[in-house]
């Protein structure tokens, strides 16, 4: 499945959410990559994975819920740490295989207590640790 | 493999690029998700996939090269369309399974000629087409 059938629709036209969710292109494990971006600063915070149930829960509760591939269970971001992600908006890409979450991240998004997960930055033939835990 | 062994390093410390590349956590197809973000506006443009060879080519040439899962070949972004992505910076995440590319995108990033791929936006129980082709 994919959203290709809908890509020629015009700006402002609408589809039913259920129809879009039914046409997402999940992987063999039923998962779709989800990018979390801080809505006001534009920082890309992290990449994680969602299934249809976690997408629906996130839309219903306004708190981001992923599927944890390592723990094989739902992962309500910040449930234990308090570093919650409130949903601002959710968008799907042209292929229906990626989600962009605009969020309001409370505190660090990364399990290392850094604000975002992308702290290994390439500089020439080196990689520099680019940020410190908060 | 993963970058977990390095996550406690301090800000400003360095690793050899080869060591980091050898420890990335690719999927069974040898691929890693790569997010492209416009470096100056913060727009998240697209998600695609890279393997080690495309990572190295991107760093050497300064032009972003992905691996196309649908065509099963290297995909030098903009090679046919002219909508090239020039690399500004490359970072890896804490798990070593995602890349953040800061790029300078010439024209539309999406194959639909929209600036970015995330034009299916959820609004209540509908999904709205959020942008028009350029």
Describe, in plain words, how this protein is organized in 3D.
The structure is a homodimer of 134-residue chains. Chain A has 134 residues and is mainly beta. Chain A has one domain (3-107): Ubiquitin-like (UB roll) (Roll), CATH 3.10.20.810. Helices cover 12% and strands 37% of the residues of chain A. Chain A has two helices and nine strands, in the order βαββαββββββ. Chain A has helices at residues 17-22, 52-61; strands at residues 14-16, 32-38, 44-50, 65-68, 73-76, 85-92, 98-105, 120-123, 126-129. Chain A has a four-stranded mixed sheet, with helices on one face. A two-stranded antiparallel ribbon of chain A has the order 4-5. The termini of chain A are far apart. The model of chain A has no long low-confidence stretch (mean pLDDT 97). Strand 6 of chain A pairs antiparallel with strand 8 (120-123) of chain B, so a sheet runs across the interface. Chains A, B: It catalyses: 1-(5-phospho-beta-D-ribosyl)-5'-AMP + H2O = 1-(5-phospho-beta-D-ribosyl)-5-[(5-phospho-beta-D-ribosylamino)methylideneamino]imidazole-4-carboxamide. Chains A, B: Pathway: Amino-acid biosynthesis; L-histidine biosynthesis; L-histidine from 5-phospho-alpha-D-ribose 1-diphosphate: step 3/9. Chains A, B: Its EC number is 3.5.4.19. Chains A, B: Its main location: cytoplasm. Chains A, B: It comes from Marinomonas arenicola.
